[in-house]
Design brief:
- This protein has helices spanning about 5-20, 25, 30-40, 50-65, 70-80, 85-90, 100-115, 140-170, 180-190, and strands at about 125-130, 135-140.
- The protein starts with a helix and ends with a helix.
- It is globular, with a radius of gyration of 20 Å.
- It is mainly alpha-helical and about 190 residues long.
- It is about 65% helix and about 5% strand.
Length: about 190
C-alpha cells in the first residue's frame, strides 16, 4: 500500500477519534478537562519514529498484563510519556478475545520454565481452572513471572524493531515529528491558559 494511502487512512482515524474526544457532552465535564488537554495534544497523534516506538512498547507491555481496562492504563502512561497514542491503543489489541487464551497459556508455560531454571519466586499457591471440561492447575507465581517477563521482553524488542522498520522504509514512518504551525501552537497555548 502506498504511503499516502496509509497516511490518509491514519489521518481519517485520528480526526474521528478527535471528534469523539471533543464531544460537547464531554467538554462540559470538569473531570474531563485535564485528561482532554493531555490527550488532544496533536504532537501525540502525529507518527514519527521515536513516538511510535515508545507507543508500541507501552502498548505491548500493557497488552501482556492480565488486568481490566489495560488500554486505559496504557493510554494514561502514553499521554504522560508523550508517545504516540493511536499506536499505543492499537498495540493493546494484541490480546483480544481470540488470542487471549493462547497468550495466557504461553505466559504460564514460560513462567513455569523460568521457575524450573531457578528464578526465585515465593510460592503463591495453585488455582484450579476448568478448561474444556478438564481441570487445569495454574501456578500463580509462574503465571506472574510469565506475564511480567514477556511484557518487558516485548517492550524491549518492539522499540528497536520500529527503528529498524523506519530505517528500511523511511517513507512510511518519518524520523522527526511534524512541527505544529505557529498560529495553532499560539492558539493552543491561549486556550490552555
Amino acid at each position: 500500500m502506498p504511503p499516502r494511502v496509509l497516511r490518509a487512512r491514519y489521518l481519517w482515524l485520528v480526526r474521528k477519534a478527535h471528534r469523539i474526544l471533543r464531544h460537547r457532552r464531554l467538554r462540559r465535564q470538569e473531570w474531563w478537562k485535564p485528561i482532554r488537554n493531555s490527550l488532544l495534544d496533536r504532537r501525540l497523534w502525529h507518527p514519527c519514529r521515536d513516538t511510535v516506538a515508545g507507543g508500541i512498547s507501552i502498548g505491548l507491555f500493557f497488552a501482556m498484563m492480565p488486568m481490566p481496562f489495560q488500554t486505559l492504563a496504557a493510554l494514561a502512561i502514553a499521554a504522560r510519556a508523550k508517545v504516540n497514542i493511536p499506536f499505543t491503543v492499537a498495540a493493546c489489541f494484541v490480546t483480544n478475545p481470540l488470542t487471549e487464551p493462547f497468550i495466557r497459556i504461553t505466559q504460564h508455560r514460560f513462567g513455569c520454565w523460568m521457575r524450573s531454571i531457578g528464578v526465585p519466586m515465593p510460592k503463591l499457591g495453585v488455582v484450579d481452572i476448568t478448561w474444556d471440561g478438564k481441570l487445569v492447575q495454574l501456578d500463580v507465581a509462574a503465571f506472574i513471572i510469565g506475564f511480567l517477563v514477556i511484557g518487558v521482553l516485548l517492550a524491549l524488542v518492539a522499540y528497536p524493531l520500529v527503528h529498524l522498520f523506519s530505517a528500511l522504509l523511511p517513507n512510511h514512518l518519518p524520523i522527526r515529528q511534524v512541527p505544529l504551525k505557529p498560529r495553532r501552537a499560539a492558539r493552543r497555548q491561549s486556550s490552555v491558559n
